[in-house]
Amino acid sequence: MDTQTIASQGLLQLHTQYVPKGVSVQNKVVITRAKGARMWDEEGNEYLDFAGGIGVLNVGNAHPEIVEVVTQQAQKLFHTCVHVTLNEPYLRLVEQLCRIAPITGEKKSLLLNSGAEAVENAIKVAKSYTGRSAVIAFESAFHGRTTLGLSLTSKVHPYKAKFGPFVPEVYRLPFPNLYRKPEGESAEAFIDESIATLKRAFTTYVDANDVAAMIIEPVQGEGGFVVAPPRFMQALRDICTEHGIVFIVDEIQTGFARTGKLFATEHYEGLDPDIITMAKSMGAGLPISAVVGRSDILDSTEVGGLGGTYGGNPLAAAAALKVIEIMERDNLPLRAQHIGERSFDVLRRLQETVPFIGDVRGLGAMVGVEFVRDRASKEPYPELVAKISQKCFEKRLITVKAGVYSNVIRLLGPLVMTDEELNAGLDRLESAITEAVAEFC
Questions:
Q1: Among 82, 224, 258, 313, which is least packed by CB within 10 angstroms?
Q2: C-beta separation of 301 from 125 below 8 A
Q3: What are phi and psi of 153, to 5 degrees?
Q4: Beta strand pairing call for 46-49 and 397-398
Q5: Domain ranges of the chain
Q6: pTM of the full structure
Q7: Where do the H-state alpha helices sit in 205-305?
Q8: CATH class of 77-329
Q9: What torsion, rounded to 10 degrees, do the Cα atoms 122, 123, 127, 132 define?
Q10: Would you tell me how many other CB atoms lie within 10 Å of the CB of residue 45?
Q11: pLDDT per residue as tens digits for the range 179-205
């Protein structure tokens, strides 16, 4: 056994010995360096990255321009805490976020550290603005792992089990997953039914005048890359306007070019949310998030009611500024469209011959493949997905699962990957699916 292999086993043993079992690891490998869409472990083995740190690396790993600006910033200023003294990267970044956010009118922005923090603060300002306490969320949603985030999240195992009680006054309503609509029912009728259920909830669940916010992902991330129908999204906007409810669009996973637009909101003409939450690829791997919204809403709390010690850290803010520049200059939304089109072509062709592929869906380069035991019952097939994931790893392709039943493979590779890397990764994925299916048949 060579020295590198011994070192690898030693590092994995540290994980077993010192990291709580609740911290899951899908691909048991220790990555020591990465560049773009390629990663290397401590033994020098090369992997293709189709997970992107769960949607964090849209501009790739260790992008040279990001490395440069972070290095320069580190030589000048690590931290001040914005509550003590201001720093330039924070101020420049909120200016840019307000410029690019697809929200009309005057806007303001708050910087934080994680997606869960962004969601928490969006709900806080909505409650402060409206003076109300209730929140509406949707089935199969994922909004974080904090107590409020879990209250909004709609997946029991492993996220919610044994972690209650949760925050009260959270009401969960159906999300129109068109793949799982009743047999024989039209898409339009199914959407109509979902809208009617929401309106009826103001009679059966909660008074509309008690609802502070409604929060939704335009494409559900952990929920399995289910795309919200445009008519449903517009109905939510109209209902929120009618009842004075703050409409929050969670773009933590969909934002920053992933769906073929800078923000998924832009796919829905005239949607105009009140607040958008952002994180993940915003910082290219550094921890940063944001709440961007109408000035009157974000200004509704008292002084000192928002923030945190590390929010808008100068290093992460500098990285985010460069991310925005790269995405606009290199037109990464267009690149996402190309990656998505190529991925859909391969996976839908494979769907024709693999009966366990129930659905291939997504938006731009946010592509999900749902596996079922048979297409008639649409019963989830998580065991097959686990085997496919294992096969991908053996072929040195890093993937990540999704779905309420863990029966979806989701593609979130860096948007800067080359066509050669894209095609190689798709070839490995196709081979993994074919081999796994053969073993299960």
A1: 82
A2: yes
A3: -75, 145
A4: parallel
A5: 3-62+331-440, 77-329
A6: 0.96
A7: 230-243, 295-298
A8: alpha beta
A9: 140
A10: 13
A11: 999 999 999 999 999 999 999 999 999
